[in-house]
Amino acid sequence: xxxxxxxxxxxxxxxxxxxxxxxxxxxxxxxxxxxxxxxxxxxxxxxxxxxxxxxxxxxxxxxxxxxxxxxxxxxxxxxxxxxxxxxxxxxxxxxxxxxxxxxxxxxxxxxxxxxxxxxxxxxxxxxxxxxxxxxxxxxxxxxxxxxxxxxxxxxx
Length: 156
Hints:
By secondary structure, the protein is of the alpha+beta class. The protein has a single domain (4-140), classed as Gcn5-related N-acetyltransferase (GNAT) (Aminopeptidase). 34% of the residues lie in helices and 28% in strands. It contains four helices and six strands, in the order ββααβββαβα. The protein has helices at 18-33, 39-51, 102-116, 132-140; strands spanning 4-5, 8-12, 57-63, 66-78, 83-93, 120-125. A six-stranded mixed beta sheet has the order 1-2-3-4-5-6. Helix 3 links the parallel strand 5 and strand 6 (120-125). The protein is globular.
């Protein structure tokens, strides 16, 4: 899956990447929602994906040996479409690496893989209502508003 884009490659994340993935997730929560997450809880959550691959998988953009961007793919079963919908979550690009096409390369890797698989019927992600820059990026990549709002109940 390693696809060179500028000077970075897109690859599956490794367990050795767990600490940077957790740190990026904490930074993401702070930047997008003003939430301070417990770093130990986030690290256990990231490691939980490596313990049980059915929960999801990370792709990373790697430059030399450094992770500069990430996204998480989780799977939703669609009985209406008889196939998997891949959800993109935990999207983060290190601030100093932004505007280099890092997310675009990550998304393209997901998109290209999804196109080749008969069991994948679509790709979705959610984006904060106020994050207009991200919405523009996603629209430029061919995504459109799905007409849904996300409702939730969270214990914490």
